[in-house]
Write a structure and sequence with these properties.
Elements (H helix, E strand, L loop, with lengths): L1 H13 L10 E5 L3 H6 L5 H21 L4 E8 L7 H25 L1 E6 L7 H12 L7 E9 L1 H16 L5 H5 L12 E4 L18 E4 L9 H12 L10
Parallel strand pairs: 1-2, 1-5, 2-4, 3-4, 5-6
Helix pairs in contact: 3-4, 4-5
The structure holds 3-methylbut-3-enyl trihydrogen diphosphate (2 copies) and magnesium ion.
The site of one 3-methylbut-3-enyl trihydrogen diphosphate has 11 residues, from strand 2.
Length: 246
Amino acid sequence: MFRKKEAKKAAVRQRDGNMSRVPAHIAIIMDGNGRWATSRGLPRTVGHREGAKKFREIASYCQEIGIKYLTVYAFSTENWKRPKEEVDAIMQLFHDYLIEARQELRTRNIHIQVLGDLSVFDGEFRQLIDEVQSMNPGPDALVANLAINYGGRAELVMAANAAFAEKQGPITESDLEAHLYTAGQPDPELIIRTSGEFRLSGFLLWQCSYSEFYFSDLLWPDFTTDELDRALEAFAGRDRRFGAVK
Ligand code: IPE
Ligand code: IPE
Ligand code: MG
């Protein structure tokens, strides 16, 4: 098991012979849970359960291959438009994951951060989030950002208001950045969306400024570590110019 993990890690690193091509921060729009379930004649909620399992698998793979930050879009500010039963089932999955995280993440060396407007959640849920976020598994832990009740526009308005209130004058890019949910973290170098959709749906609108994109046809519960490797390979081949001439 250990040897296989090490071999995979080495393979990713060797891909272009340059460690710096493994992104520090990957973000994933985990889309397609509903279609995965419907195509099997199952309720959409089963798709979300499978999606949550897939998240656990991919997070531990990211940790193995040396990714430092993994941000996943789990529930958007627009997803409240869905039927109550579906929303409740998704919230229950977060709750279950956070309970599990409280018990096990220290040993798994993952640091959870929740990105989003948490003011809508009840006290118990917020308390659980606080507890999990304040756990400190160690300096080399994977930071897993879970975007829940997240909207990129809402984040920008919140950050702009907070920056302005602090400074009471014209704000700079770094003032605004300091108030984003991702403050202090590098921007994602690579954003992956599954399920064959080609849009951001409000994800990381500020942080995606120079991200590379990879679109996968796989529905999120069907996503694999091999497909993640393909995304990393595509990323390693991109010519990132940041506006300059090379
Ligand atoms: C992504 O899968 C999960 C959430 C948005 C919560 P979907 O539920 O959007 O799946 P599809 O797009 O309907 O297949
Ligand atoms: C984006 O997926 C949000 C998440 C994956 C959580 P949606 O399924 O909500 O996005 P749209 O409605 O297809 O744009
Ligand atoms: Mg969707």
